[in-house]
Amino acid sequence: MTALVGHLINGEMRTDAARTQDVFNPATGEASRQVALAGKATVEEAIASAQAAFPAWRNTPPLKRARIMFRFKELLEQNSDEICRMIGEEHGKIMHDAAGELQRGIENVEYACGAPELLKGEHSKNVGPDIDSWSEFQPLGVVAGITPFNFPAMVPLWMYPMALVCGNCFVLKPSERDPSSVLFIAQLMQEAGLPDGVLNVVNGDKEAVDTLLTDERIKAVSFVGSTPIAEYIYSTASAHGKRCQALGGAKNHAIIMPDADMDNAVNQLLGAAFGSSGERCMALSVAVAVGDQAADALVEKMQAAMQSLKVGAFSDSSNDFGPVITCAHRDKVNGYISSAVEQGAMLVVDGRNPEVAGYSGGFFVGGTLIDHVTPEMISYKEEIFGPVLQIVRVNTMQEAMDLIDAHEYGNGTCIFTRDGEAARYFSDNIQVGMVGINVPLPVPVAYHSFGGWKRSLFGDLHAYGPDAVRFYTKRKTITQRWPSAGVREGAQFAFPS
Ligand code: NAD
User: Fold this and answer.
1) Is the complex ipTM higher than 0.95?
2) What is the sign of the dihedral through the CA atoms of 201, 202, 204 and 208?
3) Total tally of structural domains belonging to the chain
4) Same domain for 244 and 328?
5) 345 and 361 inside one domain
6) What pLDDT is recorded for position 496?
7) Which of 302, 69, 30 has the alpha carbon at shortest distance from 188?
8) What spacing in Å lies between the alpha carbon of 55 and ligand 1's midpoint?
9) Does residue 408 lie in a domain region?
10) Which of 119, 345, 425, 444 has the CA that lies 20 to 30 A from 61?
11) Are 109 and 73 in contact (CB under 8 A)?
């Protein structure tokens, strides 16, 4: 019998399901287990258990909440091999890449350990004669997170550690495509000492999500996923009076200036374009070469470097990247490659249908390089989310920047140059939320916040870091005056007149 991945509700593992769905090992193409898809009633039970846990958790001192996070961090480190194996089996990313993902998640737990400091609030003495005023950050209540398949461990850890240390209770709806590591990690949170009901995980699909979006007990929703769904989540959650941050898709460009150290740029681009099969919202999928000389050198060196790329199963650490998530997604990525060729681009390295010994049923796409891509092409306009690097040729840096600014997405971007003034102008003016200068994947560390601009983020506050304190709390400002009642002057024996 295939294992059924279920839910964690009020501290108990459950497998009730309105429906079930296969979970695949994308390297073999076989369904290795099933996931329970929660119906409305199960989600409502999770919300109710979070609601019941809230009063006590809200009043638990931040230091005690933080101590649970310290223990959680240790458990994550002790169980990292097991977690990475689960990620590899269901997502397909290579173990060392999964370890990097987990490390980035742990860094968010470390940031959450600073809760007492983060929640200190603001204080002003004598805002008027004998009047003091302070702002404190109170939890919202029950908040929800909805997460994508591509970082099954890290993205949930962007959300609930901070939400919990701020005093909220949480209902997480992870991706139904790779649910095992999420559930395992949530059990570690329980083991670390979290009271039952404070964190609940419900696996599910649209029915579960819609229940969270419309239930009045949910006060805020954090979402990470594709742009069409992010927009739907934001508009539906907002229409139901909830605070919402919805992070969407991306098309991240790298500008390759004529003075760039080309060997370094090629090296960086290799990892940033093909790592994790390009299934990263910060993947560099477009290289904009300034001048034909830079473009020719880039293509030549990139083509040569790509000869040694190794695609295969997660368990072989000599592989550079693994399969894409599903059979349908492989076909979609291959379709984008074909469409670029049909629309006049030049296919330099074709990664469609690679031979992977022993894994003929896997959902593999090899590293693909396409030159002479233009902004009108479908493969340029849309997010491919596969191991495909496209080269666009322009004549000036301004042309490259105009291209980036005109794109609907604005998640990440970077520039490769040796010129500080050009880099400064670029970072100051480009309409993108996260910018790298000779850094291909400018993912902010846990003590800065993460978020794109334009249609890569709906809402205002970014994910994790300092913005998370603001997102998961509401400000209350208290102003106080204590007129003298004479207590300090000692006992009064005379009858008050
Ligand atoms: P997705 O949008 O398909 O799914 C994300 C979540 O939404 C899942 O939990 C899923 O169950 C749920 N969902 C899907 N369809 C829904 C619907 N119709 N109604 C309600 N809920 C629905 O995204 P994905 O394929 O899992 O992840 C890949 C996408 O996520 C890419 O576009 C990638 O760029 C994006 N992403 C963005 C960031 C970021 O920080 N901006 C980070 C990681 C991934």
Assistant:
1) yes
2) negative
3) 2
4) no
5) yes
6) 66
7) 69
8) 32
9) yes
10) 444
11) yes
Sheet hosting strand 218-224, strand order edge to edge = 12-14, 7-9, 199-201, 169-173, 142-146, 218-224, 243-247, 457-458
Structure tokens at 445: 């560390």
Question: Are residue 193 and residue 79 in the same domain, yes or no?
Answer: yes
**Which of the four pLDDT bands, split at 50, 70 and 90, describes residue 493?**
confident
> Are residues 221 and 356 located together in one domain of the fold?
no
The CATH number of whichever domain residue 322 belongs to comes to: 3.40.309.10
- CA separation, residue 109 to residues 75, 262, 360 (Å): 11, 37, 39
Residue nearest to atom 10 of ligand 1 (CA): 175
Give the residues surrounding ligand 1 with Cβ less than 6 Å away.
146-151, 155, 173, 175-176, 205-206, 209, 224-226, 229, 247-250, 281, 383, 385, 411, 452, 456
CA of 457 to the centre of ligand 1 (A): 12
pLDDT digits (tens, 9 = 90+) for 166-216: 999 999 999 999 999 999 999 999 999 999 999 999 999 999 999 999 999
Catalytic residue numbers read: 281
Question: Which structural domain range is residue 70 located in?
Answer: 4-248+456-478
Both 384 and 407 in one domain: the answer is yes
Long-range (24+ apart) CB contacts under 8 A made by 424-427 are 426/255, 426/397, 426/401
Ligand 1 centroid to residue 225 C-alpha, Å: 3
Same domain, 281 and 337: yes
Task: State whether 267 and 233 are in the same domain.
Answer: no
Query: Which mutation among 43, 240, 281 tests ligand 1's pocket best, with the greatest number of atoms within 8 A of CB?
Result: 281
Distance between first and last Cα of the chain = 87
Question: Are residues 241 and 269 part of one domain?
Answer: no
